[in-house]
Design goal:
The protein is α+β, with helices and mostly antiparallel strands and 213 residues long. It has six helices and seven strands, in the order E-E-H-E-H-E-E-E-E-H-H-H-H. Strands 5-6-7 form a three-stranded antiparallel β-sheet, with no helix packed on it. The chain has a two-stranded antiparallel ribbon with strand order 1-2. A hairpin with a 6-residue loop joins strand 1 and strand 2. Helix 5 crosses helix 6. The radius of gyration is 27 Å and the shape is elongated. 10% of the residues are buried.
């Protein structure tokens, strides 16, 4: 895994990990030595969806006072249908209204939405929702939407600046590919040189070459 500068492509740190090691789990082990090479405080950190983990955001923001430009990993969660202003759409195709805020039991805050006809005495639910005929004063469906309270969810990923900065990741990938190829070539040349210095002349396979080195 390579950690490099976006514009220049200069690699600051390289870490080889096992195949079952996630990218996000080794971020502290990469940033710490990289910070010794180049001061990383108040810089922008780019990463793909593999780094979309709360601990990474908190590390960038709290330890380095930086900015994280990382897209959300929806993790298979389907986004509910909603209006441009954020109001969810009910099963009948109606925009449901805000009805105060509540907690989720885990320290988070949720915006509550309710049926626009919930207290209507003459209105009729177009889809005859099961909660419409419940015999209660407040009728109809109810939905909840989490209100961002942490850095990860507070980032505006639809703004032009976020998109422009994240577009630099293409350059990062190109530099990573070039740097990794360079590392591979240097490694192969080092093995070949070691084999020659040890007097081995068996070059029929890379495996034999590494053994002789």
């Amino acid at each position: 895994m390579l950690f490099n500068l976006c514009i220049s492509g200069l690699p600051l740190f390289e870490l080889t990990t096992l195949a079952n090691t996630t990218d996000a789990s080794v971020v502290p082990d990469i940033l710490r030595p990289a910070n010794a090479v180049l001061f990383l405080r108040e810089r922008t950190f780019l990463g793909d969806k593999g780094y979309d983990v709360k601990t990474v955001y908190n590390l960038v923001k709290d330890a380095y006072e930086g900015e994280a430009v990382i897209p959300l990993n929806k993790r298979g969660i389907k986004s509910p249908e909603k209006l441009s202003v954020g109001n969810p759409i009910c099963e009948a195709g109606l925009a449901i209204r805000k009805d105060g805020k509540t907690t989720d039991g885990g320290g988070g805050i949720r915006q509550k939405y309710c049926c626009p006809f919930r207290q209507s005495k003459t209105g009729v639910c177009p889809c005859n929702h099961k909660n419409w005929n419940n015999g209660k004063k407040n009728r109809g469906c109810t939905k909840y939407k989490a209100i961002p309270t942490d850095y990860r969810l507070s980032i505006d990923r639809e703004c032009l600046r976020f998109k422009r900065v994240y577009a630099l990741r293409t350059e990062c990938e190109r530099y990573n590919a070039a740097n990794l190829n360079t590392v591979a070539h240097i490694s192969a040349l080092a093995v070949a040189l070691a084999a020659v210095l040890h007097g081995s002349h068996s070059y029929r396979s890379a495996k034999q070459l590494r053994r002789s080195a």
